[in-house]
């Protein structure tokens, strides 16, 4: 039976049928995994934003951008590699964000609190000291 309202119980099924908790030990380990995963989400978001900032500063603002006409083969390969790395980080981060959202949709109060606490810890550890507020976040996930 799937809950449609928040409930507080040590019995929860998270993401897949095989991930069920029935004891306090397994429940606490699940909550710890939720905290770690959500903090890791913030870490990856920080890495992605820093990569975007670094790649954005390497191009002069006065240079005309012609993505289909490659003028400098070596420099464009590096830019392509940075864009590819950014795309991979974005994809992994989006997948983790959606998995966290689905975990919250288990409607277990402990899982919800663990994910919010993990996001707050991750933000405090990895993103709160950002002086680079000029980067626009283009993350479609609400949990960023």
From TrEMBL:
Main subcellular location: membrane
A Gene Ontology cellular-component term: plasma membrane
Family annotation (InterPro entries): Cop_transporter
Keyword annotations from UniProtKB, A to Z: Copper, Copper transport, Ion transport, Membrane, Transmembrane, Transmembrane helix, Transport
A GO molecular-function descriptor: copper ion transmembrane transporter activity
Family recorded in the similarity comment: Belongs to the copper transporter (Ctr) (TC 1.A.56) family. SLC31A subfamily.
Protein name: Copper transport protein
Organism whose genome encodes this protein: Quillaja saponaria (Soap bark tree)
Lineage: Eukaryota, Viridiplantae, Streptophyta, Embryophyta, Tracheophyta
């Amino acid at each position: 039976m799937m809950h449609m309202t928040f409930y507080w119980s040590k019995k929860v099924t998270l993401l897949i049928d095989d991930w069920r908790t029935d004891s306090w030990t397994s429940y606490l380990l699940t909550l710890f995994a939720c905290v770690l995963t959500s903090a890791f989400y913030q870490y990856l978001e920080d890495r992605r934003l820093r990569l975007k900032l670094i790649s954005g500063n390497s191009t002069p603002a006065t240079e005309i951008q012609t993505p289909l006409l490659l003028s400098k083969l070596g420099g464009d390969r590096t830019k392509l590699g940075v864009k590819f790395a950014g795309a991979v980080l974005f994809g992994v981060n989006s997948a983790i964000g959606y998995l966290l959202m689905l975990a919250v949709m288990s409607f277990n109060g402990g899982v919800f609190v663990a994910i919010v606490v993990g996001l707050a810890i991750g933000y405090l550890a990895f993103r709160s000291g950002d002086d680079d507020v000029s980067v626009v976040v283009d993350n479609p996930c609400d949990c960023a």
